[in-house]
């Protein structure tokens, strides 16, 4: 197990019965046209669909109850409307080269993305901060390391994205039941 995922699972115990934890990645990746990062797939395999600390809602591309295409479209439609109103800087959207692909959202309009590159192991993490309208890029950081740092109250985005005081222990992961 990835050391960051091991530590995260000690700090935030995975659900005993994760929802949609182990779907066929090959089918998902074929549909998206890209290989997803291995730390993300490992995270989903033990946590499934749900929310970290009821704040960060993880996108589970293997959860067939949610259309990947629709989810991506909704996120970028929202960001485009923010951009049109001056609440978001310029960005490239997936599947454009170097485009952003969402992996989490918050209730207050913030998003976590991967900034895609040729291979998924090179992808950087980016956060859209609704309050400032900025996108903060953090190179050389994977999704699991990003979540671990937030849980450890070490915000990799500085004062952007979310209030780390929301991560007071005990931190929890709540499975998404949905429909």
UniProtKB/TrEMBL annotation:
Ranges for domain Knr4/Smi1-like come to 18-153
**Alphabetized SUPFAM superfamilies for the sequence:** SMI1/KNR4-like (SSF160631)
InterPro entries, from UniProt? Answer: Knr4/Smi1-like_dom, Knr4/Smi1-like_sf
Do you know which Pfam families this protein is assigned to? SUKH_6
Name of this protein: SMI1 / KNR4 family protein
